Amino acid sequence: MSARNLGRGLNALLGDADEPAQQPQGVKTVLLSDLEPGSFQPRRVFDEEALSDLVESVKTKGVIQPLIVREQNGGKYEIIGGERRWRAAQRAGLREVPVLVKNFSDKEAMEVALIENLQRQDLNPLEEAEGYRRLMEEFSNTQEELAQAVGKSRSHVANTMRLLALPEKVKGYLETGKLTSGHARALLTSKDPEALADTVIAKGLNVRQTEKLAQDGIEKKPRKVQPKKQSDKQAECDSLAADLSRALGIRVAIRSKTVGGDLILTYETLEQLDGLIRRLGASPAAGRQTSDTLTAESADEGDTLSLDGDDIGEVVFDGSFSDSLDGDTLSLDNIDK
Prior knowledge:
single chain; alpha+beta; Conserved hypothetical protein from pyrococcus furiosus pfu- 392566-001, ParB domain; Arc Repressor Mutant, subunit A; 3 domains; 14 helices; 15% strand; rod-shaped
């Protein structure tokens, strides 16, 4: 059957109601014992409560809408559409029901059975998904063609078919109505959908809460922390700091920056500070102020000497300290040993 006919739905297969001349076989009444369930029935679960309501309706009003059947050998009829009505009629104690006999091929019988249930919204999400799958795989329909046939969006068809990938346990919850299709789609992203499904049911979580739990349970790959590679410039500065520390007898640190850098001289006593100042050509008196903090500006503008007046302090040169670097190499020639 072409996609165009499939898109017309049941009318394309059953014939238009206002054209009885085109129907070689019409409505007739047959015994319930002459009807057999169809081999193409997509429904696997029959809701007992809904079926009981239908039984009460059949008891009072009978079967109003004929079952769709095709004739079999031996005077029997295969039910293509209307198995619930047939079951309800049995429980209601009826002996016969009205049927519409059609000459369907196997392909047409399957299409009618699936489309009728899909358009009636009588299927649970898994039955709907399986119906879509069969129509696509057995009749080579695309998702777009199938969506047009059943009056759904292509994304609805695609998302519904994804439910077939769920574990069997979760499928069971979906078939019995313990989980909705929204819950089930959220579980598809979970690392352990079965365990999460049990949690959702036990706590009565809604779809949004289920989605959050599913996302939280996804293992995030730890970001690899690359070891910080010491630049060649900083490595040379560390080597120069060690040489300068041996020359001055105090701790020395050199911190390289994009432009220039910091030279940090750490002293433990004021005597060490006096000796350091003398070596750098400064006046000893400049190291003593009542605030115990010394700031001396060198001849080159921007060099700042900061002294903390505790027993242990630091001398920090910044800014034009880079002037003492010749090609990123610090010279110790100007230090008076």
